[in-house]
Amino acid sequence: MKRILTATLSVLIATGCGKNDGGGPAGPSETTLEISETKVSTGYLGNGVQFSMYEVNDSPQSDWGRAFNMWMDDAMWAKTLERLEYMKLGLVRTMISSAAYSFKGWDGNTNEPVIDLARGQERIDKWIGFCDRNDITVLWGEWGSANISDITDPVWSRVIIDYADYLINTRGHTSIRYFIPVNEPDGGWTEVTGGNFNKWKAGAEAVYSRITEKNLQSRLQIAGPDACPGITGTSFIEKAASQLKDKIGIWNIHIYPYPDQIRSGSYEGLIRCWHDLMGRDKKLVIGEIGMKYKAGTSEYTENLRRALEDPMGKSDTGGGANMFVYDHFYAIDIADLYIQCMRGGMSGGCAWMVCDAMNTGPNQKMKRWGMWNIFGAKMGFPEDENIRPWFYPLSLLSRYIPRGSDILSVGDSGTDGVRAVASRCGGELTFAVVNNSDATRTVTVKKEGEAPRRMRIFTCSEHKRPVDAKQLPVPAEIRDVDLASGETIELPPLSFVLMSSLDY
Fold first, then answer.
1. Helices and strands, number each (H, E), in the chain
2. pTM of the complete model
3. pLDDT tens, residue by residue, 6-35
4. What pairing do the DSSP bridges indicate for beta strands 441-447 and 487-491?
5. Which of 159, 201, 293, 377 lies in disulfide reach of 382, CB 3.0 to 4.6 Å?
6. Helix 391-399 and helix 74-87, axial crossing angle in degrees, nearest 10
7. Are 444 and 31 in contact (CB under 8 A)?
């Protein structure tokens, strides 16, 4: 399938980072890729997803329950968690507003915050309990509502960290290991900071102090700054690195590139550059990974048209929906982006997002970014609950590059659209390659000294995406592979192949 063409954009936005080696001429249609034991990164944290808590539709008493008589029932939870369990997630990001959970208001007599730590625990325990059982690392954090108080007010840090302490020490949740003080604090759209670094710094320092006061520092570290350097530039992440490095446990940013930045190979170099600016002494995770479309391009226009003409009438038409999640080419773009990020040194990344019905409003206008819409049947469109194409490569990159892997160096292909990544985990090897071009490519992958091994081989192209009865990926074949001699793979246009010796 020919994807929508877009006008040529600049490879880089105003980021402060120079151009990398991505893009260039089309190169040969046949290429050889050499895997080496040189490590790009070690102790990978895992690939995963953004999972939000269905605040407006989790129960009969929720906004959707009262207004539309629909909510997240046990069968929907079971289907969701079964699909996520297939992914063998290593890392997830879950943000809440404590104003909607533990904070109930102010005591008129004492002027102290009124806290109910147990409020909303059923859905929290269901999701975080799943993460506990599956040993998934949770990036837990605060959206940044000003309903509690100003971010510089000590009450703000006390409310949000005391709630995290309750989840860890009272509820016994073991998977919450990092805390994000505010979502995208560098953005003018963020309520409690307005993009002001000094306000965020004050809040982050207060959070760090409260973590220390609660004796949580061995179990909970700050993941920051949660900024968007590809949108707002590098000033915020550079200030965070120079002024708060000793208080941040792991670097965390968001990325939403334009399609041509991915297809040119630009993001590998950007990830490397941003990590260099913050410091290689800490791992880098990407808390939100997605795509956006520049105003004036054919993709932007088509995305808006689809949102406006949504037959369900449920799509956000204000720019908050990505209607290409239904398309095969989106799956390949996401696979390509993840591969570039891993090649650039990312230690884990969370795709935005699991389900359309998360991060939505009481009016049911959904930000369509999900791998499915679990409310499809209740909305009269049961097919909308089907797994969408982009789940296929993402689930495999999560399942077969598990936490604890080392990312290995793979040579550049020299061919337009062809990029690859490899990993080693417990002696087992995984290799993934994408062809993000409209031409067939042939790749021979080699690993010197690698003994022949039995490998599961998965293929993802427009007309070949093998799945089981539950729409979950299955191998196209399982056979012995001799990488020392070389394994030749034919990649149709817009395709992805993953092969792994991991025995599951």
1. 12, 19
2. 0.94
3. 332 233 333 457 443 444 456 778 999 999
4. antiparallel
5. 377
6. 60
7. yes
